Amino acid sequence: MKKVILGLILLILIAGTLIAPASADSWQNKRAPIVFGAFPSAYEQPVLNAMGTWNTAGSNFSFYYDSSRSRFEPRSIAFYMGNTINTSSAAASTNYISNGYIVDSVITFNSSCNWTTNGSRAPDVQTVALHELGHSAGVGHTSNSSDVMWSGALPVRRNLTTNDKNALKSLY
Ligand SMILES: [Zn+2]
């Protein structure tokens, strides 16, 4: 009887390991390069500003921009301006996962939106870049409507909340 119970416990432990939900996806080496594909050059600086905002959030993760990389460089976060599948979305991001780690990310800004870069109104390139870069790092949506990682349409919001920062810190 003892052997049966021990076997049962072992089985539960093994099964638990197999069915345990995987932790949120992250970049394995905690660094991710940003590249620009078919993306307006005037919108690059707002993206780099957003990059800097996440880089000072207090986590061990950082984005970096390497201008020597080509737009088709793999293992990167690539920005494009084009058609999003959900046409009502200002932007969309897709992460590609390998062995539980993010290895590639593509961010597409909706070319049908009337974008601004001066922060006077939404949709603001820097605000949306900040949100989408969060996803590229592995951060999901938060439940607080004042966060950058809130799922709804964002007003101009260029600073991360403590909640946003903690979401990144929980991954890295
Ligand atoms: Zn989102």
UniProtKB/TrEMBL annotation:
Transmembrane segments: none annotated. Gene3D superfamilies: Collagenase (Catalytic Domain). SUPFAM superfamilies: Metalloproteases ('zincins'), catalytic domain (SSF55486). GO terms for cellular component: extracellular matrix. The keyword Hydrolase applies. GO terms for molecular function: metalloendopeptidase activity; zinc ion binding. Residues 44-172 form the Peptidase M10 metallopeptidase domain. InterPro entries: MetalloPept_cat_dom_sf, Pept_M10_metallopeptidase, Pept_M10A. One of its GO terms (biological process) is proteolysis. Keywords: Hydrolase, Metal-binding, Protease, Zinc. This is Peptidase M10 metallopeptidase domain-containing protein. It comes from Methanolapillus millepedarum.
